[in-house]
Amino acid sequence: MAGKLVSRLAGGLLAVVMLLIVLASTSPAFAHAALIKTDPADGAVLAEAPVQFSLTFSEPISPLVLTLVKPDGTPVPLTAFRLTDQTVEIDNPQRLKSGTHVLSWRVISADGHPVGGSLLFSIGAPSEPPVVSEAVDWPQRSAIWIGKVFLYIGLFLGVGGAFTLAWLTQGGRAGQRFVTTAILGGLIAAPLSLGLQGLDALGAPLSHLAQPVIWRTGLGTSFGWTVLVALIALGLGLLSLAGPRPIAKPFALAGLAVVGVALAASGHASAAEPQWLTRPMVFLHGVGIAFWAGALMPLGLALKGQSAEAAPFLRRFSRMILPAVAVLAVAGIVLAIIQVQTPAALVSTAYGRLLLIKLGLLVFLFTLAAVNRWKLTALAEAGATEVQRRLARSIGVEMLIVLAIFGVAAGWRFTPPPRALAIAAAQPVSVHIHAPQAMADLSITPGHAGPVVASMIIMTGDFGPLDAKEVTLVLSKPDSGIESLKRTATKPGDGSWRVDNLVIPVPGRWTVRIDILVSDFEMVKIEAPVDIRP
């Protein structure tokens, strides 16, 4: 009766966790790469069509889909572009008519995650902008999440379980059928996840999964390496199950190591700096999870079945689990500190909220494991039948918690870490202001509300040098009832003009005006909108 109650409670916990994952990760989709500068600027009104467009990101990216949508809604693929460092320069293939256009972009970040967006610009005068759908494709997102969970099951419960059967049992086969099934599920989930990655990268629906371009695109991302290496790990795990014990051991050990390599090949954590630290930490974290989680089902079934191998199996696992958990915990703490950075980010970001859910599950898991280790293990090793059954039930609950943790980890696929958000927030916002008499390149650092520094390069209307006598920066936001912020710029000697000690009180779209005193009798005023981030 108690066993059924525990199982029901664990099942209820799992359902609640899945709901929390959805709520915690329901936020706008971002990835590591953040768009920090565009030409033309978002919302700009131009006298004539630009020869080319440019997009500058906060980190290196690879373009996937670039599209120009005309005022009548006609999409024009943009296929001619050049990638220089973090900037994509895109050729405009045709003469554009008056009205509002949309430049839609989708790129892949260094961690293998796609990110997309769009900007508006008008030629001549603004018109009703064409409709560009940016709604979340929930069937696609759900499929990606499910694929991730089953890939984790294959790697951690399958390959990890194969290691357990080869190294911790004395020829026992309790749980072999489950481990084999987990590996086979992983062998299906791995290539399927690759196709889903291609769909997500190109923003395509599930119905396009069979198209070759989808698979080529998925394979071309860093996640492609994760899938290829994961298939090797799953194959090694399967070979270890099929071979005799002397051959099974090296195959199983190699498979366990390759699990760590697969996880370190892509993802939020492995893409973080410094990579000499983060990638080894991801490797150790993955190996630790596979060792612990992989042993649970074979051990639970051995105890439940009262087999002769159960006691020695439990004894060997008990000796090895403490150092394994220590390595797992240290690696996890290091990665969490690098990714989250500040305690406030735990509640203010979707990534942090998912981490809190995971930490809550881990506290429950560690508490349950500690009770099993210090109160039940010794009696179970001594052969106490009822204690062995109780320990088997407890291990079953641990398995449910582990599956819930897999679900949380898969949810991170759709949430950027606070580290990446902080990098994006620190980036400047830039705008090019062009008029017949003069023009300027303005940069505001950082590009969010609060204390900032503005720097300006002043030129003539034909890109020549302009020796201005005085430059004044004016920022206004009438819709928020804020009076104009007027600051006189200084010239530090590097050819630019600079405004220090400037505070932008609120985010949103501001109008920036630069007053350029060309001579004692001539003042040129140029202005443009600029978007200040929160």
Automatic annotation (TrEMBL):
It is a multi-pass membrane protein. It is found in: Cell membrane. The keyword Mitochondrion does not apply. Residues 32-123 form the CopC domain. Residues 312-412 form the Copper resistance protein D domain. Signal peptide: none annotated. The chain crosses the membrane at residues 149-168, 180-199, 219-239, 251-270, 282-301, 321-338, 350-371, 391-412. Keywords: Cell membrane, Copper, Membrane, Metal-binding, Signal, Transmembrane, Transmembrane helix. This is Copper resistance CopC/CopD family protein. The lineage of its organism: Bacteria, Pseudomonadati, Pseudomonadota, Alphaproteobacteria, Hyphomicrobiales.
